[in-house]
Write a structure and sequence with these properties.
The chain is mainly α and 456 residues long. It contains 19 helices and 6 strands.
Length: 456
Amino acid sequence: MKLWSGRFEKNTDKLVDSLNASISYDQRMYEEDITGSMAHAAMLGAQGIIPQSEADLIVKTLGEILEDCRAGKIEFTEENEDIHMNVEVLLTERIGAAGKRLHTARSRNDQVAVDLKMYLRNEIGDLQEKVKKLISAICDKAQLHLESIMPGYTHLQRAQPSTFAHYTMAYAEMLTRDLGRLSDCKARLNQCPLGSGAMGGTTYPIDRFMTAKALGFDKPTENSIDGVSDRDYVLELASALSILMMHLSRFSEEIILWASYEFGFISLDDAYATGSSIMPQKKNPDIAELVRGKTGRVYGDLMGLLTVMKGLPLAYNKDMQEDKEAIFDAVDTVSLCLDVFTPMYETMTVRVDKLRRAAAEGFINATDCADYLVKQGMPFRDAYTCVGKLVHYCIEQGKTLETLSLDEYHAVSPVFDEGMYQAIDLMTCLKGRMVPGGPAPEMVQKHIDHTRAAIK
């Protein structure tokens, strides 16, 4: 018999039970559900709403149930629909009528809201630690490659001088913003909905501040209707995770390109690559490809959640039961991707020789060549045109700017002199970019130091 079956004269259809039940996925919140119930029972006793002796018994028995759940001794059933009913039935089986008092001044609507907030709050903390670990790995490898010159790209065309450190610290910066988004989400969700009831609060003299404090929330929610119908925190987390996955996907794309024979910038450790069933020479970047592919899955979770919530009137509606599978999947997917991506990155080998060769062949010092003319007094647009002609000439002759003779430079402009060769040396170009955020080793070192401090 269902705990809510009082006004019903017949049992629900078995297919309805299957559709209605959520225990298959919300059982992962057993710890939060039991902890929340312990805080609620303690408050009921403190307020004299139920006898203190029964409140103490409920809290004690719930603690025992929690230990049994952790030990794998409890089997939840679909008959009891969800984690809330399963726990309440277990409690009542153990202590009888006293267990039936637990749900006083509470609804499953505010109960599931507090469970989900507590669960996601914990998951956000775990995800933040994993993001920090990846950022730290990026900083560690960048530290080794402050002067490993490589071409920077725009439009996937070689553009200007960079270093492996400068290039990859861009991803550290993206991930640092992801940490901020996760922190913002965690802060905004940290208001306790317990005490909102079904949607209109309760006539019992409950102490919402007591339960909020006991469960680690900053304060109770301000409106009981919003308290049970708000899922902004789920949407915000799914959005933050989607942006995080977008960053991992872009990083994966770089790694896939860099690991190719055409680039050859990096070599993946054998433990984080796979082979082909038919081509013995293959070493495939499958981990990076899977992370790139799973990004679409997390996007789908976000779109599913937005679609569920878009047309719901206040307050709670059963549609909102669909929130958990999507956000659980998004959290699980991002967590797994971070777990695998970080050691893949840590163990890959950077091919400094390949980076330097690519830098030497792409005219990435062309802007510096133009800047040299500007410093001699030529307007930038005229300098730009002169260097464009030089690059065209180099392509036709199979040369680089470094290998042109001074006579060849003078054929374009008499302003060039011997000092130009030092000006377009790649290391000179690199170290001259001393602007904050630029690729000069000193500037990248400051970025690394700042990032390390930020993630502490």
